Amino acid sequence: DVKVTQSSRYLVKRTGEKVFLECVQDMDHENMFWYRQDPGLGLRLIYFSYDVKMKEKGDIPEGYSVSREKKERFSLILESASTNQTSMYLCASSFRRGGFNEQFFGPGTRLTVL
Amino acid sequence: GENVEQHPSTLSVQEGDSAVIKCTYSDSASNYFPWYKQELGKRPQLIIDIRSNVGEKKDQRIAVTLNKTAKHFSLHITETQPEDSAVYFCAADSGGSNYKLTFGKGTLLTVNP
Lengths: 114, 113
Description:
The complex is a heterodimer. Chain A is globular. Chain A is an all-beta fold. Helices cover 0% and strands 52% of the residues of chain A. Chain B is mostly beta strands. Chain A binds chain B through residues 31, 33, 35, 40-45, 48, 50, 58-59, 90, 94, 96, 99-103, 105-108, and chain B through 1, 6, 9, 31-32, 34, 42-46, 49, 51, 89, 93, 98-106.
């Protein structure tokens, strides 16, 4: 069974704080993704990584950065949290080889920025 | 980049009826079209997918059809049951990148007993 875990289910932070969200997968997947999910807007890609130390911007990277120092771990960083970053954050992973690969999602982190 | 439109945003059916959700995409190079189901409070999970060399795929009560010429694909659920109630997302890969997906905004399906 693929397991994708996220460091917190719920997080409350204050405006201006630096926030770290961590994702770990145990299936040796090359690709990892960070999405945010907002009502009526679906899943929007923030950043993704196809290899260690590699990253690419998604559709809404502003205000975020990422880090991938190990294959199994992908971190999302909010350098200075703002109230408009209050959202559900979902991590996902997939194999790269073979093409057209299923993305497996983590349980999500609901972040509230006050 | 890829743009995926999904309709309707909400759908309510009676148990036993069929439900159809439709999506259109913009990138003619897209080749992979998965559908994810997200139950309340849970993570999205893949329920069915289709590749560009196939026009239709079925798995028990769910089926997906793809029309590459018109750039649209649809999810069909027959004999709906209350446990089918969830948010459904369609997605399309980004042409040359076969692992990056663009998702539709989702359809909230409610099956009334």
